[in-house]
Design a protein that fits this description.
Blueprint lengths: L24 H8 L12 E2 L2 E2 L4 E2 L3 E2 L3 H20 L2 H17 L1 H12 L3 H25 L3 E3 L7 E9 L2 E5 L7 H4 L2 H6 L3 E6 L4 H14 L6 E5 L2 H11 L2 E5 L2 H14 L2 E5 L4 E5 L5 H13 L9 E7 L3 H13 L19 H16 L3 E4 L15 E4 L16 E7 L2 H8 L4 E2 L1 E5 L3 H7 L7 E4 L4 H5 L8 E2 L2 E2 L6 H4 L2 E9 L12 H17 L4
Parallel strand pairs: 7-8, 7-10, 8-9, 10-11, 12-13, 12-18, 13-16, 15-16, 18-19
Antiparallel strand pairs: 1-4, 2-3, 5-6, 6-22, 11-21, 14-15, 17-20
Helix pairs in contact: 2-9, 3-5, 3-8, 4-5, 4-8, 9-10, 11-12
The structure holds nicotinamide-adenine-dinucleotide.
Length: 536
Amino acid sequence: MTATLPTESTDAAQASTLRPAWVTDARVASWLRWVCTSAGAGTASRTALAPYDALPTIAVPDSTVEDVAAAVDAARHAQAAWSALPYSARAEVILRFHDLLVERQDEIMDLIQWEMGKARFHAWQEVLQVANLARHYARHGEAYLKPKKVRGAVPVVTSAKEVRVPKGVAGFISPWNYPLYMGVGDLIPAVLAGNAAVGKADPQAPLSMLWARALMAEAGMPEHVWGVVAGDGPSLGEALIDHVDYICFTGSTATGRIVAQRAARRLIGASLELGGKNPSIIRADADLDVAARGVVDASFANTGQMCIHLERIIVHTDVYDEFVVRLRAVTAAQTVGQTFDFSSQVGSLASAAQLEKVSRQVADAVAKGATVLAGGGPRPEVGPYVFAPTILEGVTDDMELCLGETFGPVISIYRATDDEDAIAQANRGKQGLSASIFSKDIAAAEAMAPRIRAGSVNINDGASLAAGSIEAGMGGMGESGLGKRHGSDGITRFTNAQTIVSSKVGPVGPPPGTPVEKFIAMANKQLVVLRRLRVR
Ligand code: NAD
């Protein structure tokens, strides 16, 4: 589906001055062609603002709900030939994508920073994560999908196995905070499993997804195996759910509920990777320098716009005062900036809406009595949407940010009397995405972990260790979602398990001429013998 370039041109005087020099009009055209839209010249388009200068990036044409239906239809046709290829042929495409991604990483880091505002190191982490996922599923995905032989209903004469068949067309709805990792990372195992895919680009960061789609084409992925639609979130997202065979959603808990209800109406499967209010427990025996570094890394990474980042720090009272001293020192040493190199550790928030939400929550907390231990407000002298890394003390239930996700560089710090109290505080609220424990006694921390309601528990690391352990499933408990990405679930969720059984003797049941009563008596005797022999 070829998009006509939007006619609405961005006034040069108004355009973002930070557009990377290599982003030529020809390159832009090579990405926009991947937007599934049939509207032609005069089509509506939308332009996000670059967070570093709050000026327009590049207009991207809008898909319509009809375009979504057409994209799924085209994907459905392409899926038959794609799934008929051997796994190794699909894996070759993904491995070529891996190599191109590593080679051209500077391009995608530039684009991610320009569209979304994060520090460059966090943009590189997206490259790292997607490359690792691509290699892992290309090399190991087939083993996750291997047919499983199980015992047949009647020994010797029957056999049974479970095989995995692709769902068909999988839909992907992803947020702006990790436009490469969330936009492509889940899709890689889906297409390797033999599905086609249609992804909805987030309006804040569509160029990163389109760049990745163009790169995948260079790697050899056929035209309609991965379709991209762009435009309004609610209308396109809901249209996508109405047509695909499975929906993989990443975003807020509020939108996740809408997605779940819509998917339920069609009885299609859904995985929902949603928000969190993630706690960290600092035990009395923790190495406080390690803990302070770990908490700062995991709280302010991605400017706090990471689903698994920490927002609640629960510290044993014996070490509370000393920990706060070290936490403030590490926080004060963070370089906040908007640089297209690795010199800034904390970047900008992504949008005016994000700045407004984070500022409002902090102001509400302060007005109701919270104490600011670091930061506390915007840094307009650094950039239009920059917010200082912030530590709050004295946060209470009446404050909006107490148990509601902030999704910014803001943490609240609490005292715990002992481990029991710390676990109880960690389990407050309804979400359960990620947690961490800092302790020199790893065995004790591992024993505490299962008592914390969280899909992942990191010990002596704030958050990223679990995300980087890609052979283990990652997802939420409670209102943080359903289903898992990564590991075996990360690929099997895009398949249906099918049971295939066969008989060498035709239909099983009483042999011809044997009275049913005699057959049942023989079968009952067999049950008694099997029980005595402890056969399962
Ligand atoms: P959001 O829920 O507003 O939007 C997510 C996506 O859904 C966007 O692409 C949006 O266009 C689309 N959308 C909006 N309304 C829709 C609807 N009615 N039907 C279908 N799709 C719709 O979330 P956001 O603000 O863009 O992202 C931040 C949230 O995502 C945070 O809560 C964060 O914790 C969460 N998140 C979770 C994970 C995870 O793995 N658990 C990862 C990243 C982000």
